[in-house]
Specification:
Strand order of the largest sheet: 1-3-2-4-5
Largest sheet: 5 strands, mixed
Number of strands: 5
Structural class: alpha+beta
Number of domains: 1
Distance between the termini: 31 Å
Shape: globular
CATH superfamily: Glutaredoxin
Order of helices and strands: HHEEHEHHHHHHEEH
CATH topology: Glutaredoxin
Number of helices: 10
Length: 206
């Protein structure tokens, strides 16, 4: 998991650990301007997922669990969902940059497609970038724009800082890793019913 230091180079990885960590009134977390969010920003429950685009458990969570949670909790205004990348390999950063190549409103549609096609592009480091570009094209992005976004290094510091915060604040040990109103829990293998129950408990202050 700590391979992110090799992934994104010699960045200021202690940025989050050294800075004063702000908290939201709903729990030990902070919604940041760069976050990609879905749902009611004033919801009483905030669900943060630290996930990896190359992680098979994350793909399962995205395709089998989140659709139901979106329907019952996000779309109904009960929960604000936040996705934050935890990079395990170079293609993770490339996928994240491609998803952010489009307007923020399209981020989750592109991220969902990236997870749905994981077995096409994440099987080989040698071909991952080219296959990701094809996935982006399917979502209406232009190859030249995708490659330009992937080549921009300015976003690496943000990716590193997000990953470092997950380690220092939540002791992340695997992906997907869920944080509900600031309380982290081991997440892979959970069903939509289990996650929904945890969200309902959080809404009741439990």
């Amino acid at each position: 998991m700590r391979g992110m230091k090799l992934l994104l180079g010699a960045m200021a990885l202690t940025l989050c650990a050294n800075a004063a960590q702000a908290t939201d009134k709903r729990g030990d977390f902070e919604i940041k301007p760069a976050d990609r969010t879905m749902g009611n920003p004033n919801a009483s429950v905030v669900l943060i997922e630290y996930g990896s685009f190359t992680c098979s458990h994350c793909a399962q969570f995205a395709t089998e669990v989140m659709p139901q949670i979106k329907k019952t909790h996000v779309d109904t205004g009960k929960v604000l969902f936040v996705f934050r990348l935890f990079p395990r390999a170079l293609p993770d950063a490339q996928a994240e940059k491609m998803a952010r190549c489009a307007p923020a409103a399209r981020y989750f549609a592109i991220a969902d497609r990236i997870f749905q096609t994981q077995m096409r592009w994440a099987v080989s480091l040698a071909t991952s970038r080219a296959e990701l570009v094809k996935v982006g094209q399917e979502m209406g992005l232009q190859p030249a724009a995708i490659n330009k976004c992937m080549d921009v290094s300015a976003d690496d510091a943000r990716i590193n800082a997000v990953a470092e915060e997950s380690l220092s604040r939540y002791k992340l040990a695997g992906t997907p890793h869920l944080v509900i109103n600031g309380k982290p829990l081991e997440s892979w293998g959970r069903t939509s019913a289990e996650v929904g129950k945890l969200l309902d408990q959080a809404a009741r202050g439990r």
